[in-house]
Amino acid sequence: MLIRLFKLFIIAITLLTAFPVIGASLEISDAWIQNLPPVVPTRAGYMIIANTSNQSVSIIGVESEVFTAVDIHETMENNGMMSMQPLTSLTIAAGTSRELAPGGMHLMMMQPQQTLKPGDLVAVTLKLDNGDTQTLQMTVRK
Ligand SMILES: [Cu+2]
After folding, report:
1. Which stretches of 1-142 are assigned E, i.e. beta strand?
2. Where are the domains of the chain?
3. CA 53 to ligand 1 center in whole angstroms
4. CA atoms within 13 Å, Cβ hemisphere of 124
5. Model confidence pLDDT, tens digit, residues 64-78
6. 7 phi and psi, to 5 degrees?
7. How far apart are CA 35 and CA 142, in angstroms?
8. Ligand 1 centroid vs 57 CA: distance in angstroms?
9. How much distance in Å is there from the Cα of 84 to the middle of ligand 1?
10. What is the distance in A from the centroid of ligand 1 to the CA of 47?
11. What does the alpha-carbon distance between residue 89 and residue 79 come to, in Å, rounded to a whole number?
């Protein structure tokens, strides 16, 4: 009996390890934060977000213990002037991906609470409209 339970446990662990994205709605890649001198009060963060599920997913909030606040910004051009504007949510349609990249959408990360240098990892949590949260590591890069 115990051995059977143990075998079931091993099978469960193997399945969980084989499919680490169970419960996760989004696949994040290339997540990075631009390194800037410590005196600069904000940082921009970038990543590629793929929604491999068959349902649309919206990011409705972003949090990190390393920053006092994190917003999603889009970059707009108005009469030749570039400006940034916060988005209340970012929707990734089923089976598509969105890219946060220099010159376009980005995370605006306010007031780093510690000195950051290239190679540092920063945990960031995405709050999704389906009630899930998803935590990822972003790498500080030059
Ligand atoms: Cu911005």
Report:
1. 26-34, 42-51, 57-63, 67-78, 81-87, 90-92, 97-100, 106-112, 121-128, 133-141
2. 23-141
3. 28
4. 31
5. 999 999 999 999 988
6. -65, -45
7. 5
8. 22
9. 5
10. 14
11. 25
pLDDT given at position 77? 87
- The answer, as to whether pTM is greater than 0.70, is yes
How far away, in angstroms, is 37 Cα from ligand 1 center?
17
Assess contact for 24 and 51: CB atoms under 8 A. Answer: no
Q: Is residue 27 within 8 Å of residue 20, measured between CB atoms?
A: no
Mean pLDDT (whole number) for 112-140? 97
Q: Does domain 23-141 have CATH number 3.90.1170.20?
A: no
Nearest-CA neighbor of 46 among 120, 109, 119, 117?
Answer: 109
Residue 95 has a pLDDT of: 95
Closest to 70 measured CA to CA, from 119, 104, 33: 33
Report the pLDDT value the prediction gives residue 12, as an integer from 0 to 100.
Answer: 61
pLDDT at 49 over 60: yes
Q: Which residues contact 136 (CB under 8 A, 6 or more apart)?
A: 28, 31, 47, 123, 124, 125, 126
